[in-house]
């Protein structure tokens, strides 16, 4: 339960009717555990397809332009295995980040019956998102693309066509790490290949014509450099967010809320799945499953509130959600 300081202000009503719960449709029957999550967003789907295309393009150039024509078989085999393994892990991490529920709050649970069942005590308040009719727990934010409130939402990433939240942040971190690694590996191989072709005859260092070879290598070099910078920055910001237990949205808002933070090492273990092991780098192993939020986790405690005081929502803008609270008569 989060304590809300009184120096934030917004209008508060005592009755559940203020939330207009009669407009909320009861939540649908929950699907089976492991049901696939997929966001039907045109831009996100296009970005995901482009991501796969760029990785497969790099795979084509590395294999058919640089490694297979090479006469150094040991060099080709070692680099081929390393690059293909990293590419496979990158695409697997991408799929897991895209198809994993990031931590969606049950939709449509802000009904009058549910609010009354919480039996709010004096000084307690709950917040509702009017966009998806959900009662929002602490640190949940609404995503306009997913059209759901997401627990510990960091941001919505079109490249994985999904939000990055408490359930799939590990996969997103692995995706950025493996993309950065294959980009760096590809750049190093391009550099060695150019040196080799300058020393040898260009017609012998590739099965393609020299102009085609140069164009393919330059495009791969540009792609590798661009994605190395981009994913390295994303990887660094994600690791920083995990270690500080502060999401990207929380960092941007910088509201001084009296929230208890998890220790940096504990936060890392929760994100990647227990104590340090090779499973941290495995996109097929699951992170530590968070406890299923109970009803009391949706209730927030006001530090000091009288009948005449007003309070602002501590986690979202005023226009994004409503609230209901109970005070002493």
TrEMBL record:
**What family does the Swiss-Prot or TrEMBL record give for this protein?**
Belongs to the DHHC palmitoyltransferase family.
Q: Kindly state which reaction or reactions the protein catalyses.
A: L-cysteinyl-[protein] + hexadecanoyl-CoA = S-hexadecanoyl-L-cysteinyl-[protein] + CoA
Source organism, top-level taxon? Eukaryota
Q: Quote the protein name from its UniProt record.
A: Palmitoyltransferase
Region Disordered: list its residue ranges.
Answer: 289-329
Which Gene Ontology molecular-function terms are recorded?
Answer: protein-cysteine S-palmitoyltransferase activity
Q: Which GO terms describe its cellular component?
A: membrane
